[in-house]
């Protein structure tokens, strides 16, 4: 009840005095003057501080307020202005300290409740923030309402927070700070489209609002990509070069783009802004690990443990560094916590299984790997780990099937989700919470796992109606339609998701659905746009290289694949097989054979590696040897039209016309086969 009364009080204040919004002055500058001899200098410095606050240079505003205090240490107004600068910089503790000093030096505390509320919110105390906001004077009602809305959202009451801001913005639609806060609340709640709209209006109304510019950069990064986001962070930093939030997001984005020197410079500036800051040290640890400087990375990461220990990225990196040092139990601890924190993270489960196996706990490894290994699209590495775990536990009969599967391509039709709850339980939970998107997403997963595609479709469509601005809703709908084989419809759903957030998972789904729907040009366009913004994406580069080979762009494919090999090393058989095809297609079959032989040695039962080896030998005129490999590849993957086409060519060259014609006809029977012109001509030649 007290919280409800507090909310009611704030709502009354908002409706009665909303004209004094967040941009209103905290005080009337001329109302209080310095009491000491250096009054002129203090007043000049404070005037400069207020001007800089309005211009968005918060760091410089802080400096000039500090100079004003140095000129007149007991001027309460100067301490209040310094508190305002600290609040703009996100430092609630320092702000509250200055507010207390302002009060002690005569500044009326009744005029600072909204500032105390903001400080409490930044210090992680939303209850105190609400209490202070409710005491704000009417002329500061706008500021108080904004803080209260953010405090409510921090307590898990986002709809109530949005409602407060809606009333505020109805009365003052040009309140840029209010739009920025609304964008932040919507973004945190998953309503990305709504957040984009709010931040667009915030920046238009308040172009010097650094929080709005930084949030706009975050949203552009999600909506369009890494490169497109950089100018927004740069716009914030052009106003205040030491604005911490923009520096951290800028550094992380620069790293993902591959601009590592610039990333390091940004983290160093962030440490200048906030000495010993954990997020900056974490980013530097990531950078050191990427450069192979593992000892340095470990040293840097230890500085984050007290504040970022439960952040997924920190746990992932910490586990990797521990594993690299042979500290398997530490890696297990990190990755186990990550897997519990993110139950759908198959990479975390795979890494946990790897570390557990290396630590000698085969049973523990099997428990960790089971969810990933049971999927039809389980990767060969996971399946190999499961097989080794069974071998280590003495159950060789169980190991053999998994080892066999590791050599074969992924089975089609894998369920897109995995869950331990029964479909009935998940559906019941969703029915009990009809307006709760998370519960209904879980129901979609359960229904798909159970094979109830129509039921899953109904749930997924309902989620898009409840929260059309959430990309997760459109992804769930697209996944359901893809599971039903309706790839064109799935592509449209993924496109809706991509319009809101165009990240790698969305891109992969969208490209695959478009390609399966026979819309390769549209798929290629989506892939190209994604790579232009995310040039470091390994998954996107793999697809691009594959399509470059298919399109006969062998030089481009070689460049793409050699770049990937530098990143991934020589232990990826699929990558080596693609390199073999690219070099062979480019007229260098000797180099192609070298790569194909290496791929085949790594995965002798992989049909792509086997075919690549055979194709290189075929181009070198070693048709008899190539034939054996083509036959093996077709035996492994009899439904692959390209493998049958290669086998048919080798059989034809060896004058085994009937067998060659049968293989080529089988290839042509596949509607997805792309080399139809050459195959048709070859079949005609055989018949004559």
Q: How many whole angstroms does the radius of gyration measure?
A: 31 Å
Sheet with the most strands? none
Strand composition percent: under 5%
Helix run count? 40
Distance between the termini: 91 Å
Total beta-strand segments:
0
**pLDDT averaged residue by residue:** 86
Q: Which characteristics define this entry?
A:
688 residues
Describe the structure.
It is a single chain. The chain is mostly helical and 688 residues long. 75% of the residues lie in helices and 0% in strands. The protein contains 40 helices and no strands.
Please sum up the structure shown.
The protein is mostly helical and 688 residues long. The chain is 75% helix and 0% strand.
Topology:
Layout lengths: L1 H15 L22 H17 L2 H14 L4 H13 L3 H13 L8 H10 L3 H8 L7 H14 L3 H14 L4 H13 L3 H14 L4 H14 L2 H14 L4 H14 L2 H14 L4 H13 L3 H9 L2 H4 L3 H13 L3 H14 L4 H13 L3 H12 L6 H13 L3 H12 L15 H10 L4 H13 L3 H14 L4 H13 L3 H14 L3 H13 L3 H14 L4 H13 L3 H15 L4 H13 L3 H14 L4 H13 L3 H14 L4 H13 L3 H12 L7 H12 L1
């Amino acid at each position: 009840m007290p919280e409800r009364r507090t909310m009611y009080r704030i709502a009354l204040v908002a409706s009665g005095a909303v004209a004094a919004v967040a941009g209103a002055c905290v005080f009337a500058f001329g109302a209080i003057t310095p009491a000491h001899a250096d009054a002129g200098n203090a007043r000049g410095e404070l005037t400069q501080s207020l001007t800089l606050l309005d211009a968005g240079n918060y760091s410089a505003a802080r400096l000039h307020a500090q100079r004003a205090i140095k000129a007149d240490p007991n001027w309460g107004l100067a301490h209040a202005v310094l508190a305002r600068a600290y609040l703009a910089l996100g430092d609630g503790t320092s702000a509250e300290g200055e507010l207390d000093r302002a009060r002690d030096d005569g500044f009326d505390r009744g005029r600072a409740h909204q500032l105390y509320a903001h400080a409490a919110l930044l210090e992680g105390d939303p209850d105190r923030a609400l209490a202070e906001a409710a005491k704000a004077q009417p002329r500061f009602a706008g500021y108080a309402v904004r803080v209260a809305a953010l405090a409510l959202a921090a307590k898990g009451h986002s709809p109530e927070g949005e409602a407060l801001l809606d009333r505020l913005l109805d009365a003052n639609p040009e309140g840029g700070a209010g739009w920025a806060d609304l964008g932040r609340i919507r973004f945190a709640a998953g309503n990305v489209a709504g957040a984009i709209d709010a931040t667009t209006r915030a920046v238009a109304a308040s172009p010097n609002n650094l929080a709005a510019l930084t949030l706009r950069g975050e949203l552009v990064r999600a909506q369009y990509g890494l490169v497109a986001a950089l100018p927004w962070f740069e716009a914030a930093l052009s106003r205040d070069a030491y604005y911490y939030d923009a520096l951290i997001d800028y550094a992380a984005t620069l790293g993902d783009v591959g601009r590592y020197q610039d990333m390091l410079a940004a983290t160093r500036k962030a440490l200048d802004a906030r000495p010993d800051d954990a997020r900056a040290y974490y980013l530097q640890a990531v950078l050191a690990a990427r450069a192979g400087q593992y000892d340095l990375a470990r040293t840097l990461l230890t500085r984050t443990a007290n504040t970022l220990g439960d952040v997924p990225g920190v746990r992932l990196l910490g586990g990797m560094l521990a594993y690299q040092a042979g500290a398997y139990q530490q890696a297990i601890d990190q990755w186990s916590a990550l897997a519990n924190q993110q139950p759908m993270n198959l990479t975390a489960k795979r890494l946990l299984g790897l570390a557990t196996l290396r630590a000698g706990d085969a049973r523990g490894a099997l428990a960790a790997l089971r969810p990933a290994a049971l999927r039809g699209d389980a990767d060969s590495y996971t399946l190999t780990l499961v097989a080794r775990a069974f071998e280590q536990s003495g159950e060789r009969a169980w190991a053999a099937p998994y080892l066999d599967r590791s050599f074969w391509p992924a089975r089609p039709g894998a369920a897109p989700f995995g869950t331990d709850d029964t479909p009935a339980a998940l559906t019941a939970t969703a029915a009990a919470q009809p307006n709760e998107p998370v519960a209904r997403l879980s129901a979609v997963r359960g229904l798909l796992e159970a094979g109830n595609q129509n039921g899953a479709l109904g749930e997924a469509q309902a989620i898009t109606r409840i929260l059309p601005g959430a990309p997760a809703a459109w992804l769930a709908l697209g996944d359901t339609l893809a599971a039903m084989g309706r790839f064109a419809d799935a592509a449209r759903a993924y496109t809706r998701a991509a319009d809101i957030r165009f990240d790698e998972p969305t891109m992969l789904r969208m490209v695959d659905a478009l390609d399966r729907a026979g819309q390769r040009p549209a798929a290629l366009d989506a892939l190209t746009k994604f790579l232009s913004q995310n040039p470091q994406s390994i998954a996107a580069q793999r697809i691009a290289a594959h399509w470059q080979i298919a399109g006969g762009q062998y030089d481009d494919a070689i460049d793409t694949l050699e770049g990937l090999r530098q990143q991934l090393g020589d232990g990826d058989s699929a990558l080596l097989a693609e390199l073999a095809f690219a070099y062979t297609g480019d007229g260098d079959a000797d180099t192609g054979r070298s790569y194909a032989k290496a791929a085949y040695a790594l995965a002798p039962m992989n049909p792509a590696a086997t075919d690549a080896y055979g194709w290189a030998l075929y181009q070198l005129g070693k048709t008899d040897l190539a034939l054996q490999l083509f036959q093996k590849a077709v035996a492994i993957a009899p439904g692959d039209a390209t493998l049958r086409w290669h086998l048919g060519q080798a059989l034809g060259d060896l004058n085994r016309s009937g067998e060659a014609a049968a293989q080529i006809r089988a290839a042509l029977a596949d509607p997805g086969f792309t080399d139809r012109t050459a195959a048709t001509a070859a079949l005609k030649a055989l018949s004559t």
